[in-house]
Write a structure and sequence with these properties.
mainly alpha; two-stranded parallel sheet; two-stranded antiparallel sheet; globular
């Protein structure tokens, strides 16, 4: 039996329902009763009193992923700016998500994407839920509520008038100090309901009154003037354009795009309107909303035939589509934009990213042929050619970036593609720190950093990057697939294989593996590692074999190669040694000109596994690589393989040393399946290793691990909070809960603990 909204049910019926529930006993029946949190709303309070003693669960709002999935299941799933507005204003409330999506579909795309109104008008049903108590409030309170609904900082001088609304639970007044008072509505839709319950003329008058009081705050004043405007106004449009520049500088990409879009709507001249729409499309790329970018570009195209503006519009649409599954369209638009001399370099750089995600050889060669001397585009389209030359150029390119986080992110990705993993991690750390200080990261930046962290043994940071790369708010299946493949890899390496298979399979289901080869190859690598962790050698071989074509060529020109040694390891256990050996040699020939240290190590490991009779020089060469420490997990695997080979040749003393070194690394990383395998080898070598759990750090959540690492570097709670967008108090709470798990009592002990856990 299910009873919803029990706060509205009469007392007698509630008692009867509770009576029945108490007498169910061991019968295969259940009663599920749901009630709204009515505290402070003026509704009957004791709705759940008859159910005292029953299990109680408080349901919080839906998270971004669940909210995005719910929107996608509506008859008319919202996209673009309308989607962002709905996610923001619904604040995870399922009813609000469904109702606002329905209203958005009824209004149509043009209305939904208009920048004129910040607050979406709620449906009648939502008005009844969220504005039921408005009529009972005094007139002065309703007038004050309209002003704070229009601007939640317009509280000064209205505290007494707002007191009845606060008593009714509609809002809470906070602050009152240096930063002034602010109104915090119990739910964003209460604010929207209050605002839209007033006539349009009253709303415009409220905005004009607020603008008159904000001469010292140009951003807020510009927004209120825009909300009050009844027609084109160049002065207001220019003020909004300036406000957009400031918002973009602090990472407010949605706010900046909205300001430019509204500035375009208020522009008297067609060319200024088109120019501002194209500028809005450029900023909207960082929101990861293809529909929004396309809509802005299309509206600009209707206003002008200026070739430069048209080329820039193509560039922006192409850039945002690189994050989608429409790689063909993205490449076409970007190559068209590259015909403009002023946009050629940036358009080709973006096209190289789309080509990388696609993995299509024809596209890769088309972009590479136009790259000329641009080191970034050349590295992305062919990271194996002239590799040493590209690596040598990175320090100068980093210096030339002058701290620009966007350029640093690109250079971090370049270093990672060139297998300079330690350098890539340092560049990513710097870039992400700078970006967080300036505001929100543009959507889609986390995965390349995440794979570098994963390769470098920083698995918690890799999972954090995967979670932060999820695009539920934008609805980008390619980006979601990339995030899930990264998460699957981190889960597989720590032995959480069921979860890894779920994430990896979901990644493959979100894209066409033949059109999004980079994601597909990484997802298959993760699924292969999950099979290795479970001891399923047949399953592992099947997955790693799919990284290469039937002829033995890479499915993806860059992402396939890191799986070559795992392919060999699975092959020797499943009777496919001859086939795998042909692929290994084909790979070695393809990369013979200037292979990275990582590729040399992987090729040597593969040859050693495939030809045990001649394995020793390959093991020796792989272990002698001075750069091998950049990939601690792969080096520990190599040590374990070598130790197994030594033990089988009765060279027990040498094998023990290798096994102990490998075990230390696996413990540090939390690689449970490989810990077990190494301990089994030690027992076979005559050493009974003490049972142990992975390094204590791995028992912490990814966020807690990140906090511990930053604290070990000497950062204060406030500095850590600024980097991770947490309050100092929250940081302190995480440290307080983490110290006992780590066996430390003071921050001064963290440095030694982390130095023992971090790869060099």
């Amino acid at each position: 039996m299910v009873a919803d909204d029990v706060q509205w049910i009469d007392a007698g019926s509630l008692e009867l329902l509770a009576f029945a529930a108490r007498r169910i006993g061991d019968e295969p029946l259940a009663v599920l009763a749901a009630a709204r949190d009515t505290a402070g709303e003026g509704t009957r309070g004791g709705a759940t009193a008859p159910f005292s003693g029953f299990p109680l669960r408080t349901l919080g709002p839906l998270d971004a992923t669940a909210a995005g999935l719910l929107l996608d299941r509506q008859p008319h799933p919202p996209t673009g700016r309308g989607r962002l507005r709905i996610l923001d204003q619904a604040a995870g409330n399922p009813l609000a998500l469904v109702e606002l999506a329905r209203a958005n579909g009824a209004r149509g795309a043009d209305s939904a994407d208009s920048a004129e109104a910040e607050l979406l008008p709620p449906t009648d049903r939502l008005m009844r839920v969220f504005a039921a108590d408005l009529e009972a409030l005094p007139e002065a309170t309703r007038q004050a509520l309209l002003l704070v609904a229009a601007d939640d900082r317009a509280v000064a001088g209205r505290v007494e008038a707002l007191a009845p609304a606060e008593a009714a639970g509609l809002l809470r007044l906070t602050g009152g100090g240096h930063d002034g008072w602010r109104a915090r509505f119990r739910h964003p839709l209460i604010r929207s309901a209050i605002y839209h319950s007033a006539p349009l003329a009253a709303r415009r008058r409220a905005h004009r009154d607020l603008a008159a009081l904000l001469g010292a705050e140009p951003d807020r004043r510009a927004w209120h003037l825009a909300a009050a405007a009844e027609g084109p106004d160049e002065e207001i449009a220019a003020a909004l354009e300036e406000s957009a520049a400031r918002a973009r500088g602090r990472g407010g990409y949605t706010a900046a795009t909205t300001a430019l879009e509204r500035a375009a709507e208020l522009s008297p001249g067609r060319r200024d309107r088109a120019r501002r729409l194209v500028a809005a499309a450029g900023v909207a790329v960082s929101t990861g909303q293809p529909h929004w970018v396309r809509g802005l570009a299309a509206r600009a195209a209707e206003l002008t035939d200026d070739p430069a503006l048209s080329a820039e519009a193509s560039l922006r649409v192409g850039q945002v589509l690189t994050l989608s599954t429409e790689h063909d369209t993205a490449l076409s638009l970007l190559l068209r934009a590259a015909e403009d001399p002023g946009l050629r370099r940036v358009a080709l750089a973006s096209a190289s990213v789309a080509g990388f995600y696609s993995g299509d050889e024809e596209y890769r060669l088309a972009v590479r042929a136009r790259a000329q001397d641009d080191p970034w585009t050349l590295a992305v389209t062919d990271p194996t050619a002239h590799r040493s030359e590209r690596v040598a150029a990175i320090p100068a390119l980093v210096e030339r970036a002058d701290g620009d986080p966007a350029r640093l992110i690109s250079l971090g990705a370049m270093a990672w593609l060139l297998d300079e993993t330690a350098l890539a991690v340092r560049i990513f750390d710097d870039a992400l720190h700078r970006w967080r200080l300036g505001g929100t990261l543009p959507i889609g930046l986390g995965c390349s950093a995440g794979w570098a962290y994963l390769d470098h043994g920083l698995w918690a940071q890799a999972r954090t990057a995967a979670v932060n790369s999820n695009s539920a708010g934008a609805g980008l299946p390619h980006l979601d697939a990339a995030a899930r493949s990264l998460e699957a890899a981190a889960l597989a390496l720590t032995g959480r294989t069921d979860e890894a298979r779920t994430a990896g399979s979901a990644a493959l289901a979100l894209v066409d593996p033949h059109r999004s080869r980079a994601v597909a190859v990484r997802a298959r690598w993760a699924l292969g590692m999950a099979a290795v962790a479970d001891g399923d050698h047949v399953g592992a071989y099947e997955q790693f074999r799919l990284l290469f074509t039937a002829d033995g060529d890479p499915v993806h020109y860059a992402c396939s190669f890191p799986g070559v040694a795992e392919l060999a390891a699975a092959a020797v256990r499943t009777g496919h040694g001859t086939e795998a050996a042909a692929i290994v040699e084909r790979t070695a020939d393809r990369l013979a000109e200037d292979p990275s240290p990582r590729i040399r190590i992987l090729i040597h490991r593969a040859r050693a596994l495939l030809d045990p009779a001649h394995a020793e020089p390959h093991f020796a060469a792989a272990l002698a690589e001075p750069e091998g420490g950049q990939w601690p997990f792969e080096r520990a695997q190599l040590l374990l393989d070598h130790a197994e080979w030594l033990r089988r040749r009765h060279r027990i003393t040498e094998a023990r040393h290798q096994l102990n070194t490998a075990l230390e690394t696996f413990r540090r990383l939390g690689a449970r399946p490989w810990i077990d395998r190494t301990q089994a080898e030690l027992r076979a070598a005559g050493i009974e290793s003490a049972p142990t759990s992975p390094d204590a750090l791995t028992s912490l959540s990814p966020q807690q691990q990140h906090i511990i690492r930053l604290a070990a570097r000497g950062l204060s709670n406030r500095e850590i909070g600024e980097r991770l967008f947490l309050s100092p108090r929250t940081v302190g709470s995480h440290l307080y809960r983490s110290f006992p798990k780590l066996g430390v009592t003071a921050r001064s002990q963290l440095r030694d603990l982390i130095e023992a856990s971090c790869p060099s």
